From TrEMBL:
This is CBPM Carboxypeptidase. Keywords: Carboxypeptidase, Glycoprotein, Hydrolase, Protease. SUPFAM superfamilies: Carboxypeptidase regulatory domain-like, Zn-dependent exopeptidases. It comes from Bombycilla garrulus (Bohemian waxwing). The lineage of its organism: Eukaryota, Metazoa, Chordata, Craniata, Vertebrata. Belongs to the peptidase M14 family.
Length: 435
């Protein structure tokens, strides 16, 4: 069958402007209609489509048990390497399917969404490529899209841009499990949190999430499979990154970033990949950038199969949406909930965990699981939960996490509790002395 499919024209190593990018994506979809789905999730300020190509055995819709993965590039319009290597990743995936057993299994068991450019206006506005900075960094309204999302730690006063709104809706409408956004200007894999407060350890210069171990693993997976990122040498002598990774806050504090938004509100683990010291390098370097990143891009996608997944169902076998499912000891400030099919996906490293499933109004269900390294099998451990007391007439109410700074409230509570604890300790000591 594959022999009968017309091959796409060879993709050149050059910069593809809007019309060429669209022509390539349409050509791929026309050549591989059963393996791909091309759609626009919205439009930019200047009216350009925000194209996403979906690849997989079921590209047009979510299939129960198959996790959703995404790559987003060119969020800053003048950071261009990611835009081009994602086009080459698409080309590699479709031409390898049915020929390479690893890629075939990956696409059969993963739904992969690729957005080559989130900021097409900024890319087109960059008339003179530069290694350091151009106005093309921003969108058509002059806004930095990676400072434009709701922030979990402080109020973000920036007006939500069309590109940001489109991505927020996209995240809301899909069950994304793992993601990465591709940037330029450094060589490092950066992980959440980008912002922080004393609750997450900001006073020590590190903002730690409940899943810090998983994020470190994800960042190391990319850096260790990259041609040179793992060396940690950075782009100059002033900046080094041990093992090629960094906590975002430790590098520099960032408000309104996309990776924190994905993790807190989208239930999706995302890291930021800085892929080139030069933001907009000469086109003759693109082939080397592709070779440097090719293995890392594939190995990172495989990590979507870490951990545990399953469904929460009622006594009749019907799915229960909006049930809370989390691993004991790592609660999220915005609890992770099941989707409309009652599905949950939790990224966890190999080990023993207690998984807590809760349908509001009913007793929680706890199950101990032993999670293996399942990335090579292209399927996380499956663990379903059945609530015999729940019927299909009873459903959890849809619960949306408020867009207020959630960790700001947590910090207030923490600060209010500390004096009370100190007073109790002091009173205990005094009682011992008097006795």
């Amino acid at each position: 069958i594959l022999c009968l499919v017309p091959a796409t024209a060879a993709l050149d190593f050059k910069y593809h402007h809007t019309e060429e990018l669209e022509e390539f994506l349409r050509g791929v979809h026309a050549s591989y209609p059963s393996l791909t789905y091309l759609h626009s999730i919205g439009r930019s300020v200047e009216g350009r489509d925000l194209w996403v190509l979906v690849l997989g055995r079921f590209p047009t819709h979510h299939k129960i048990g198959i996790p959703e993965f995404k790559y987003v590039a060119n969020m800053h319009g003048d950071e261009t390497v990611g835009r081009e290597i994602l086009l080459h990743l698409i080309d590699f995936l479709v031409t390898s399917y049915g020929r390479d057993p690893i890629i075939t299994r990956l696409l059969n068991n993963t739904r992969i969404h690729i957005m080559p450019t989130m900021n097409p206006d900024g890319f087109e506005a960059t008339k003179v490529p530069d290694c350091y900075y151009t106005r093309g960094r921003y969108n058509g309204n002059g806004e930095d899209l990676n400072r434009n999302f709701p922030d979990a730690f402080e109020n973000n006063s920036a007006s939500i841009q069309p590109e940001t709104r489109a991505v927020m809706d996209w995240i809301k409408n899909e069950t994304f499990v793992l993601s990465a956004n591709l940037h330029g200007g450094a060589l490092v894999a950066s992980y959440t949190f980008d912002n922080g407060n004393p609750v997450t350890g900001s006073l020590k210069g590190y903002s730690r999430s409940p899943d810090d171990d998983v994020f470190i693993h994800l960042a190391k997976t990319y850096s260790s499979n990259h041609a040179s990122m793992y060396k940690g040498t950075g782009c100059d002598n002033r900046q080094t990154f041990p093992e090629g990774i960094t906590n975002g806050y430790s590098w520099y504090q960032l408000e309104g970033g996309m990776q924190d938004y994905n993790y807190v509100w989208g239930q999706c683990f995302e890291i930021t990949l800085e892929l080139s010291c030069c933001k907009y390098p000469p086109a003759d370097q693109l082939e080397k950038f592709w070779r440097d990143n090719q293995v890392a891009l594939i190995e990172y996608i495989k990590q979507v199969h870490l951990g545990v997944k399953g469904q929460v169902i009622d006594k009749n076998g019907n799915p229960i949406p909006n049930a809370i499912v989390e691993a004991k000891g790592r609660p999220h400030v915005c609890p992770y909930r099941t989707n409309e099919q009652g599905e949950y996906f939790l990224l966890l490293l190999p080990g023993t965990y207690v998984i807590n499933a809760t349908v509001p109004g009913f007793k929680s269900m706890l199950k101990t699981v032993e999670i293996p390294d399942s990335t090579g099998n292209f399927s996380a451990l499956k663990q379903d939960f059945s609530f015999p007391e729940v019927s299909d007439q009873i459903r959890s109410r849809a619960a949306s996490c408020p867009k207020t700074p959630l960790y700001e409230e947590l910090a207030r509570v923490s600060a209010a509790v500390k004096p009370t604890i100190h007073i109790l300790v002091l009173m205990t000591i005094m009682l011992v002395i008097f006795k």
